[in-house]
Design goal:
This protein has 2 domains: about 5-85, Winged helix-like DNA-binding domain superfamily/Winged helix DNA-binding domain (Arc Repressor Mutant, subunit A), CATH 1.10.10.10; about 90-290, D-Maltodextrin-Binding Protein, domain 2 (3-Layer(aba) Sandwich), CATH 3.40.190.290. The mean pLDDT is about 90. The protein has helices at about 5-15, 20-25, 30-45, 60-85, 100-105, 105-115, 130-135, 175-180, 195-205, 220-225, 255-260, 275-290, and strands spanning about 50, 55, 90-95, 120-125, 140-145, 155-170, 185-190, 210-215, 235, 250, 260-270. The termini are far apart. About 45% of the residues lie in helices and about 25% in strands. The strands form 3 sheets. Strands 3, 4, 5, 6, 9, 10 and 11 form a 7-stranded mixed β-sheet that branches. The chain has a two-stranded antiparallel ribbon with strand order 1-2. By secondary structure, it is an alpha/beta fold.
Length: about 290
């Protein structure tokens, strides 16, 4: 198997067609078709079902795809390892929860960029489930997510502690009044959000289940919907004030066992810990101690 053939196969799978893959790879379609056919011949299987609409993976192609992606990631990582002479430089791609990015990372990113100007820092945001999946897929060198996280392939380090609170419109004066509403709705991020899962667990312990959900794509949209009286959410209470204007949101405290949660930094154990990442983690530890 040729690694370039594997990379071409993976691009066709992602783009859904030979022509689209050729444009992505800046080559002609005949070159793409030739590489895919050569790979199919070497394996003795058909990898794509071809039609006028494009190319769709066969069952054999589906089985091969994770390995092709892994080989591509390992080759890229090998190049970074060869170029890494101990001085932080190059691209560092990390992930974070949107709440963590809003509350905790501004000063960390600023001090890191100042200390290591040769590093091109890329920050991706998403849910805990999304960030963990992208770290496992080697798309991120590491990510700040909601703990606890237990996975044999991940190294996990506690970085921050957050106090969570129920947030509602100011008209809800007490937690009892809020939870007693017959038309209570949850204002949440998409599935995979750790705070969403925790909110449902908190309410279930109080016998409140089966509530309607309103899903929004951003933190700002969630807080705006809550302020407008559309429902209740669970977020770090520190968001109210420095990030979201005080007075527009009512904050309802929870018991420490329900409220306190750790934000952890996760990375693959077997992935290169680049000099840029080592320096970044040191900055995160310094930020934790302040």
């Amino acid at each position: 198997m040729d690694t370039k053939d594997l990379a071409t196969f993976a691009t066709v799978a992602r783009m859904g067609g030979m022509g689209r893959a050729a444009r992505t790879l800046n080559t002609v379609q005949s070159n793409v078709t030739q590489r895919v056919r050569r790979l199919e011949e070497s394996l003795g299987v058909t990898l794509f079902e071809r039609s006028r609409a494009g190319a769709r993976l066969t069952a054999a192609g589906e089985r091969l795809m994770p390995y092709a992606a892994r080989v591509d990631a390992l080759l890229e990582e090998a190049g970074r390892a060869a170029r890494d002479d101990g001085a932080p430089r190059g691209t560092l791609t990390v992930g974070a929860l949107e709440t963590t990015a809003a509350l905790r990372l501004s000063s960390l990113l600023a001090s890191y960029a100042k200390a290591h100007p040769q590093v091109d820092l890329v920050l991706r945001t998403g849910t805990t489930a999304e960030m963990v999946e992208r770290v496992l897929a080697r798309e991120l060198e590491g990510a700040f997510v909601c703990g606890p996280v237990v996975h044999p392939e991940l190294a996990v380090a506690a970085v921050f502690e957050e106090e969570l609170a129920l947030l509602s419109a100011p008209s809800n004066r007490s937690l009892a009044d809020l939870l007693g509403q017959p038309d209570l709705r949850l204002v949440i991020l998409r599935a995979g959000c750790s705070y969403r899962q925790r909110l449902e667990e908190i309410l279930a312990r109080r016998g409140i289940v089966g509530l309607r959900r309103l899903e929004f794509g951003t933190l700002e949209a969630i807080l705006g919907a809550v302020a407008a009286g559309l429902g209740v959410t669970l977020m770090p209470r520190a968001l109210v004030g420095p990030v979201w204007r005080g007075g527009r949101i009512a904050v309802h405290s929870l018991k420490p066992a329900e409220a306190l949660v750790q934000t952890v930094f996760v990375r693959r154990r077997d992935m290169l810990c680049s000099s840029a990442l080592v320096a970044f983690q040191k900055h995160a530890v310094k930020g934790k101690s302040r």
